[in-house]
Amino acid sequence: MNIIRAALFALAFLFGAAGPSHAAAEDYAGADAGILIYSAGSIAMPLSFQFPYKRIALPSSEPVSDWRGQIESRTGGFSRLRVSNAEYDGRETGRVFIRRLPPGEYEIDDFRFAGTRRFSSRQPFSIRFTIRPGQATYIGNFARAPSLGTPLQRTLGAVGFFVISDKSERDIALARARVPDLPQVTVSVTDVSTFGHPMLLTGEPR
After folding, report:
1. Which of 2, 21, 126, 184 has its CA 20 to 30 A from that of 69?
2. pLDDT digits (tens, 9 = 90+) for 14-68
3. So where are the chain's domains?
4. Each residue of 85-112: pLDDT tens digit?
5. What residues have CB less than 8 Å from 158, skipping those under 6 apart?
6. At CA 167, angle to CA 166 and CA 172, rounded to 5?
7. Rounded CA gap, 41 and 98, in Å?
8. Are the beta carbons of 147 and 119 closer than 8 angstroms?
């Protein structure tokens, strides 16, 4: 019975009971808006997560106004174990997101696993990107993968890890199919391997 209970707990932690409940910020409606493009999904099995971002500086000397959102991948819980509204499918499943944001410098410095409890990063990191008026910026593909059955299982257990990589060829094509008048896109993908963070990788471990 204890083994069954432990297995159910692990599944609940991996998939999440109902997915994240914290909604991302609404798109910015100002005439000076820039465009953020990224993709989010899962590798091997559907897994929920969140990477909150916040604006930390403006293009000028004006005080920083609060603008927050989050990179997010949702699954449907035990009844619908799949990434919601997927645009690409296979070993990796997910979709491309296009957000209108006010211009400025932004930072991602935490993540959250969705499940029976919240799990945030215990090791500092900082992914930064710039949003410019009337321009588009692509910051990468964010995917959560299971650590069970990989070389990381010994150190990470069942919580999994993230692969943050450049899938701009695929993602920008999907974005343009949805928004044909998308401006030229600047690719700005952070090499997360420089952080030395055990849960942030640029590819699956071999």
Report:
1. 184
2. 444 333 333 345 799 999 999 999 999 999 888 889 999 999 988 776 667 678 9
3. 2-201
4. 789 988 999 999 999 999 999 999 999 8
5. 10, 13, 14, 146, 147, 148
6. 120
7. 14
8. no
